[in-house]
Amino acid sequence: MDLDTARQELEEFIPHVRNMSDSSVKKMAGRDLTRFKEFKRQGIAVRFGRFTQKENKQIQKNVEEFLSLTGIDSAEKLLFTWKYPEDKNTIHHLKIKYNFCEKISEGIPRPWRLIYYRARKMFDSNNYKGRYTKEEKEKLKKYQALHGNDWNKISELMSRSNLSVAMKFSEIRSATNYGPWTKEETQKLMNAVKQVMRTRLHTENTGSVFPVEQSDTDPWIEREKLHQSLPWSEIETQVGSRFWRQCKQKWNSILTRKLTRRHQLYRGTSGLQAKINFIKRLYETKAEEASELNWDELSSVFGDVPRTYVQTKFYKLKVSSVPLWKRKTFSEIIEYLYEKTLPELEEKL
Fold this sequence. Notes:
Elements lengths: L2 H8 L11 H10 L1 H9 L11 H18 L4 H5 L8 H10 L2 H5 L7 H11 L11 H14 L3 H8 L3 H11 L10 H23 L17 H4 L5 H8 L4 H16 L8 H18 L9 H4 L8 H15 L8 H19 L1
Helix pairs in contact: 1-2, 4-8, 9-10, 9-11, 10-11, 12-14, 14-15, 16-19
Protein name: TTF1 factor
Pfam families: Myb_DNA-bind_6
GO molecular function: chromatin binding
């Protein structure tokens, strides 16, 4: 299959495939396209977002079955083969012989790469070690000064996952401010996001009939692009005094305030109607886990708002309306809202 055809066929399942590199498209065409088509035939959509408990169990089952099939004696050797140079060639041969890519992703409607990363996280013995001690933080700073951002090397030295050490260093590498945001910090954040969006739009439009002009005029940006995934580590660097998670939370709050400024949501009869419509839409999704919801799609119930606004409203709704909600599963919360809270709201309306 040629590259253009692969992109075209994958776009049905991965809308952002046009922005992916050629090598990534080739890998997805080989590993995922046949799987995606089979899931479509079964009426199952390709999923993103947080993995469900059911998916985690399926990954664990797939890994255990592959170990049994090949005789590899641990998930550590299978998923972190580079740590075992003496067994590397043997394991690599077994992976090819027994179709590792297909086996590890069996029954899970997600891109193979995401399933593989999830499996590595689940079976990484260094991934669940709690809070960093003061001594560990000092060691992390020392190792980063010696090895730069070689997180694999630092991961070995710290006996923590590479993701964990990278994120923790992001938090402690500068004099991070934990208090209220100043006007200067907020402006730096706005400028950083604007620069990222300009660069992204320019990249997407390079070679198009109407490319984005290089000027001080801000281009029109679709609402969906404003709250999609952004390079927060890059934005963190430009802000300087806040780590990436703070930047992300602040941007979401700014976005929500700007997009809802002209909406009188959750007030009077319009607020009641919005809650009613929201509960009905939640129930219609038949979702078993919050990660199965398309929050962007649900946002249309309230108007021109980002997903974080909808997620916040859902949290407030379950806390105020569902007794002992912490002891209930996600589907039980939705059922309670639909069976108990909805009739009360409709009567009140």
